[in-house]
Model the fold of this input.
Amino acid sequence: MTDKFEARLVVALCLIAAARVFFFSAAFPFFGNVDESAHVDLVVKYSRGYVPRELVERYDTETARLVARYQTLEYVQQPSRFPMGFPRPLWEASPEVERRALSSRVAQLEERANHEAHSPPSYYAFAGLGYRLGKFLGLSEGQGLYGIRFLNAPLFALLVWLAYRFCRNGCPRRQDLYLGVPLVLAFLPQDVFYSVNSDVLSPVLFTASLIVLLSWWHRERPAIHLGVWLGFLVAATFLVKFTNIALALVFGVALALMAWRWIEEGRTARALLTVAPAALAALVPVGAWLVRNLGLFGDLSGMGPKIEELGWTRRPAAEWLSHPIFTPRGFWTFWDGVLRTLWRGELVWHLKRLASPVADAFYTFSSTVGLIAAGTAWGMERRRVPPVAAAPTVRTDFRAVVWASVALSVLCLMVLSISFDYNRSYYPSEAHPFFTSGRLIAGALVPFLFLWVEGLSLLLRGRERVKPLLVVLASICLAITVSEVLLTRPVISNPYNWFHVP
Done:
């Protein structure tokens, strides 16, 4: 496969990925069950330059109007509740009927507290600029609302390209891996990318950070400006979602190892001049946000009001080991839930998960087997067991970063699961005390898919037979896409979606 053809293939995958995300973003009406109204409220506020600072933040009047006018009840209600059919969109009614309905509903929504109000700012600042641009261009109210979602299309295309560059840099002689990963990613049915949600920015910034980190690490004389750029990227990623802490830990270890290496060589000044600017570039933005939270809300994360709103209470550390996640059945429940939602997301329709039992079983089984196979391959390489040792290998530091990103991300969800009693909360709950939302660790999506593809490649001997492996991956992508279309078929014709919005 020539470099020219390879480049065209990757560009085609980026365009396909963008088109997929655009179509499904348009097909799903507002407001999805994964806190989409809360995220839109923050985008609206950031678009005006307002960063929430009150302990309890109510919905903005503009948000309340958007929710009142464009929300469908079909995410959270069953058809049996509406024998005559779900309510039609308000814009189909007469102006007077619409005005009265909006007035009443907006007043109710303005009293609702936004439990996401103190979330980190990176995504909302980015999406807020996009929303403001839509208004500047004269988009209608409904089109501007969908415009926030449509930002996900170029973001996802960029993610596919970054996945290619990341894998190409880490294993330049493994065409099965650096083409297989963007291929699977382009067709990934993760529905968080079809809604307004801060998690959509995590994998883009996380993957970009890893690319810069490994490039910086391999330079004989690492450039100071590149280290500063890396620090800002790590800070921006952490300030999308605190569950991206895996990247911060990988970054911190890399800085420590780099400094230690140079100090041992007697180049203490070089270590200080290189590592310190990178560390400061990451610490200053993060520190400023945490100190702000401490001053305004009394805790560093700013999540105190949200925890109180949801009814969670902190679990004493002495009781952590009694959590069911440390039992075989409990861990499998956690692991299965994370894998399923990392692949296909969490959207529901008529209160039923948009999921296929067959597809879910495939996601869990193939991911578990793939990760075990990838781990086995790494172990064989480290022990130099033939024939693996004689074949082209993945760079050791690249593989270490990939595994650390995935393992630390999963560990983060485990720690969150055992840290709280969930009391009256719906999710997590006393009956299901697990954080199984794969979107929370979407930052590690590309490293995860790399391990999945590597495991599958090992099982199918893809290293020697690249084209057959890519055919198998393409077949899997086709099956996934058919399943996704069949699952979302009732959604596509919904009168509230972009195809019908005035």
Residues 386-392 have pLDDT under 50 and may be disordered. The first helix runs from residue 3 to 27.
